[in-house]
Each structure stands twice: as C-alpha cells, then as structure tokens.
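Run: sequence + FNR -> complex structure.
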Amino acid sequence: MSGGPRPWLDTASAAASGTTPSAGAAGATETAGATTSTERDRKAEHIDLALDRRTQADHRYFDEWVFEHQAAPELDRAEIDTSVEFLGRKIGAPLLVSCMTGGTEGAYRINTNLALAAEARNLPVGVGSQRKTLEDGSHRETFQIREAAPTVPLLANLGAVQLNYGFGIEECRAAVEMISADALVFHLNPLQEAIQPEGQTDFSGLIEKMGAIAAELEVPVIVKEVGSGISGDLARALVAVGIGIIDTAGQGGTSWARIEARRAGDLEIGELFADWGIPTPDSIRAVADIPGVTVIGSGGLRNGLDVAKAIALGADLTGMAYPFLEAATEAPESVVARIDRIVQELEIVMLCVGARTIEDLKRTTLYRRPRPWGR
Ligand code: FNR
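>> structure
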C-alpha cells in the first residue's frame, strides 16, 4: 500500500467545500456545505461528491475472498468466452454500467460517453433517476442515450419511494418510453433519503406496489439498492411479488451516507452510517440462494478480479458505477479503456482458475479469509 490514495487518512479539510472539480458537471461548483437552499442542483452535487474518493466506503469486502490458483488450467486463453445473456440479448461481458445520472447539464456528456462506450463493448447501461424530468420536463435531453447506444439493453430508473409520492404505472411507462428502455430499475434507498436534507422517507407498502408495477409494465422490473445491499428476506419478498431481477448494490463502494451527509453539512452522521449495510459479497450469496432469480452483483466492485469473485459467489452479472464516473466526464474512449481493463482482468482470473465460460466461473470455489481489518 504505497503511493495509492488512502482516503481514510485524509483530513476532513475538503469537507467544508465538499466538492471536487468535474469536467462534466457544469454548474456544479456550488458549495455543498451547510446551505439548505432547495434551489441547489442535487444531481450536479451528487456527481461532484461521488467523484471524491473520500465518499467511498472504508472496507473492501471482496478482499476477504480468494480463488484457488490452477497452475495447469488446461485451457487456451484464446478460448475464453466472457459473454452472457441479459434481457434476451447476448452481451460482451457480465458487466453493467450501473445507473447514475441525468437531469443536470453535465449529465448529458456523462450519459452519452457511458452509452457510446457501452455500445462499443456491447454492455448494458442504465440512467439515473428520471423523476424530476418526468415531473417538470426539465433536462429531458440528458437522458436521450438510445441514439448513442442503439443495440444494447438500456435501463430506465426511478426511486421506488416515488410510488408513495404520486407516481404510478403511467410515470413508469413514461420513464421507459423516454429512453426506449429494455427494463425499469427501481432503486431502494432509505438510508440515503433519511440523511438527504430534502429526502422522502415514506417507504411503506413499496414491495406490493413494485410488484403491481411489474405485473402491468411491458418490460421487466429490476430492483436495486444504492450501496446498502439487499437481504435474502427482501429478495424472497420481491420474488413473491413477481420481481425476478435483483441488483444487490451492496456496502463496500460508494457511500450515500457520506455523500448526503456532506450535502447536509453534517459529516458526523455520514461517518456514523458510512459502514451501514450488507457487504456486497454477503448480499450476493443471500440473493443467489433463491432459485430462479437473476442476480446482478454490485456495490464496491472495482476491477475484473472483483467481477470474477462476484460471479463465483453467485451473481449472474455485475455492475459498477464509481469506476466509470470519472472516465465518463472525459471521453467515451476513457470509458472504453476502463471496460477493456476490467475485462482483461476478468480473463486473467478465468485462465488462472481454468474457467472457459462465465458458467464455469460460477462453479468455481472461493475461499474466505479473515477480514484484513480484524473484525
Ligand atoms: C448513483 N447511483 C444511483 N442509483 C440509482 O438507482 N439511481 C440513481 O439515480 C443513482 N445515482 C447515482 C449517481 C452517482 C454519481 C453514482 C456514483 C451512483 C448508485 C449506483 O447505481 C450504485 O448502485 C452505487 O453507486 C454502488 O455502486 P459503486 O459506485 O460502488 O460501483
């Protein structure tokens, strides 16, 4: 551990400004400190704060897991096939560009760069919450990525909690139609909403309501968290109401407690809840135990080795947000380079464990070692 960023050792000096310059987030230089103005551009602040490494979780839960090396894998690397099926299409690797943004000026560039790269590498890509645009029609163009990604699966996105604040099947259809999406993602984010200054916190009855939408909507519904994980019990309840695709978005990566605490000017509450949630490997194992569920393993995956571990723990495919964000503020080529690196790392693992296909990788055993931080 030399030379690399060690955010947990940084002082909190930048917390007062709470911002990191980001090429894509025009108008996002506003101070994200104690101001409570409702006029603030929440989406731009989210991008800026998410780019700051200090809003990442402290622990890398995937480091607890190791593969057994196969010195004689009896495999030619050229034979390795990372493709999988998702939403009825064959995609290049078990990797989804997780839902992030839209609805603010800089988001158009980020979403377009993500979409162009996803199309170039035949991977699915999601957009961030479409709520505000559906409510007031603003910044609709920032979600228009179908032109940049004509053939890959696109995921629309809404907060499930909106189902308690006036949204129903019409708004869900409109979100899907806005981007010609192949699926609608509902995100569950009680921790984020509870810390967010302007958060909406009536989470009652949402499982039934998501099930009702899933029954009516023309495309599949996916349910995800945003960094605190999905438990086995919740996954079973979701399956019982007809939801068959679950994205763990577990603890170990982007910390929405830290991001929203900075926006609220209350760093203390962010630190108290920074480690809240189900570690992604645990969430993947719990959800993968349920027969028939398509499991997207996400939350804190940072490289192709993490992808391989998530698959071996039971995920069908994986997702990443933060690892693509900075590249997406730059250029599509930067995002493509990140994807290629991740796939290269995944292929190295597959060779070294003797897995020719993703199905082979799923059957590969992982071993758990004690938590490096000793608890
Ligand atoms: C997100 N995430 C997110 N998720 C969602 O369902 N709707 C959204 O609008 C957003 N917005 C958003 C903005 C930014 C800037 C980031 C970085 C992330 C959450 C994301 O999809 C993912 O679940 C978490 O970030 C955890 O994955 P990583 O970042 O640890 O790979």
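>> summary
Residues 58-254+272-368 form a domain with the TIM Barrel fold (CATH 3.20.20.70). The chain is about 35% helix and 10% strand.
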